[in-house]
């Protein structure tokens, strides 16, 4: 039986998961999104055309790949329908899209609640204000509405109750309230559009496994945004690490094969929270411009800095990463000098001890090794041996420290600019 391969973010998101997913999904029969919602933004470039995916697995662009939105995903139907339209307008089909009947539905009150909660927070998280936290709250509070309820039109009573309850809170804070009649009408229309795509995806995935089909799990967000393993409270409200892949699909651990951890040759973060190797200076600004580090989802400028191997080693441990995919090697190679964080110094001692504890991080100092840059144009190189010496030294050192092989090397923006080992 084919094992299920997984692509995960190793840091704070935006590592370029889309590029690796795009490559791997070309040889996958089934491509699955497992967690999160339209807080994710995966951009891929095909024939000079840029596609931004927020909800639909990018595998949809391959004619023969079934694209699954798993039960762990939270779905904003409006965004989903827009994304489907966009794909169709670009000449691709969405007939192979399948949506889990168990995926929870985002309603306008979730989005409004997200905004209100952020407003009320003393320490802002910097959420994407897509309603992600509030919809997962409803899921765990057990008042959520699932895609199956939506398309079978068994949602009105619960929805009206939810809106009534949330409006009471909105009124207290003078926030705009939600008109239940409008939402019911709107979501009945969405239900009609989406009905034919909604199925029991657990069944679908296990049938595919039995037929020896190749399944690829597309991680969204990343390890340090994980509700358990990330830098809480500056995290998202789901489990984007390996556990979320299993619970977000119904695929048990024994079926999992390769776990690819995606990272960039530098690091970036959107939103608030600790970030030890951040370069809030000219270097960070240069990396941001060279790497076009502006949010796919929110267009926010991303915080940028050096690659942190202490954090990467943590991601490797938590997820059981078997191979690394490192993007933007071309970008970092445009600098003269590159730094790599190889340890944290605390109370005079250097160690590889990572923690998401904010007090711990604030007492640590990054320890750097310096490398020569100026890699030149590497976008057409197809073998790792042919990379310039400076690039090889940098990549070898990363492998040496985290003890996981690099399987993919991103050498440019285009679909083909990648070395596969
Ligand atoms: P992809 O899949 C980067 C961040 C937000 C915020 C925090 C909580 O593109 O890598 P939320 O709206 O999820 O409640 O926000 O998590 N965040 C991401 N940052 N890439 C993402 O996804 C993200 N998804 C959420 O910026 O700090
Ligand atoms: Mg993103």
Which secondary structure elements does this structure contain, and how are they paired or packed?
Elements: E1 4-9, H1 17-25, E2 30-33, E3 42-46, E4 49-53, E5 66-69, E6 74-75, H2 77-89, E7 97-100, E8 104-105, H3 108-120, H4 132-141, H5 147-151, H6 156-172, H7 180-194, E9 198-199, H8 201-210, E10 215-218, H9 242-247, E11 256-264, E12 267-269, H10 282-290, E13 303-305, E14 307-308, H11 309-319, E15 323-327, H12 329-332, E16 337-346, E17 349-351, H13 358-363, E18 365-372, H14 389-402, E19 406-410, E20 418-420
Parallel strand pairs: 1-10, 1-11, 2-5, 2-10, 5-7, 6-8, 7-9, 11-15, 14-16, 15-19
Antiparallel strand pairs: 3-4, 12-13, 16-17, 16-18, 19-20
Bound molecules: 6-O-phosphoryl inosine monophosphate (IMO) and magnesium ion.
Short synopsis of the structure:
With 421 residues, this protein is an alpha/beta fold. The protein has helices spanning 17-25, 77-89, 108-120, 132-141, 147-151, 156-172, 180-194, 201-210, 242-247, 282-290, 309-319, 329-332, 358-363, 389-402, and strands at 4-9, 30-33, 42-46, 49-53, 66-69, 74-75, 97-100, 104-105, 198-199, 215-218, 256-264, 267-269, 303-305, 307-308, 323-327, 337-346, 349-351, 365-372, 406-410, 418-420. The longest helix is centred in the middle third of the chain and has 17 residues, at 156-172.
């Amino acid at each position: 039986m084919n094992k299920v391969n997984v692509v995960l973010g190793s840091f704070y998101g935006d590592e370029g998961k889309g590029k690796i997913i795009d490559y791997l999904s070309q040889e996958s029969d089934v491509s699955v999104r497992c967690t999160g919602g339209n807080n994710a933004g995966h951009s891929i470039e095909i024939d000079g055309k840029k596609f931004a995916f927020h909800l639909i697995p990018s595998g949809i662009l391959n004619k023969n790949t079934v694209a699954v939105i798993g039960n762990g995903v939270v779905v904003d139907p409006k965004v989903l329908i827009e994304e489907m339209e966009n794909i169709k307008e670009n000449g691709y089909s969405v007939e192979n899209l399948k949506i889990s009947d168990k995926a929870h539905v985002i309603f306008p009150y979730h989005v409004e609640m997200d905004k209100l909660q952020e407003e009320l927070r003393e320490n802002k998280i910097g959420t994407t204000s897509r309603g992600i936290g509030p919809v997962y709250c409803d899921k765990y509070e057990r008042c959520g509405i699932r895609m199956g309820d939506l398309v079978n039109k068994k949602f009105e009573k619960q929805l009206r109750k939810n809106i009534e309850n949330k409006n009471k809170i909105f009124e207290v804070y003078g926030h705009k309230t939600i008109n239940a009649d409008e939402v019911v009408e709107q979501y009945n229309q969405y239900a009609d559009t989406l009905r034919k795509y909604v199925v029991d995806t657990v069944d679908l995935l296990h049938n595919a496994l039995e037929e020896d089909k190749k399944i690829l799990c597309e991680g969204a967000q990343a390890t340090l945004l994980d509700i358990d393993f990330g830098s809480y409270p500056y995290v998202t409200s789901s489990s984007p690490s390996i556990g979320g892949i299993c619970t977000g699909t119904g695929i048990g651990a024994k079926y999992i094969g390769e776990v690819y951890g995606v990272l960039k040759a530098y690091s970036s973060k959107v939103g608030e929270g600790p970030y030890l190797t951040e370069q809030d200076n000219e270097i960070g600004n240069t990396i941001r411009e060279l790497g076009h580090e502006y949010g796919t989802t929110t267009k926010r400028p991303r915080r940028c800095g050096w690659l942190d191997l202490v954090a990467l080693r943590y991601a490797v441990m938590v997820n059981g990463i078997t191979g690394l995919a490192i993007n933007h090697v071309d970008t970092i190679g445009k600098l003269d000098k590159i730094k790599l964080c190889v340890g944290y110094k605390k109370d005079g001692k250097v160690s590889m001890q990572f923690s998401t504890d904010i007090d711990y991080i604030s007492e640590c100092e990054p320890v750097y090794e310096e490398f020569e840059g100026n890699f030149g144009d590497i976008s057409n190189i197809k073998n790792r041996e042919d990379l310039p010496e400076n690039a090889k030294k940098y990549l070898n050192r990363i492998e040496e420290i985290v003890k996981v092989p690099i399987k993919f090397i991103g050498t440019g923006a285009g679909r083909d600019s990648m070395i596969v080992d």
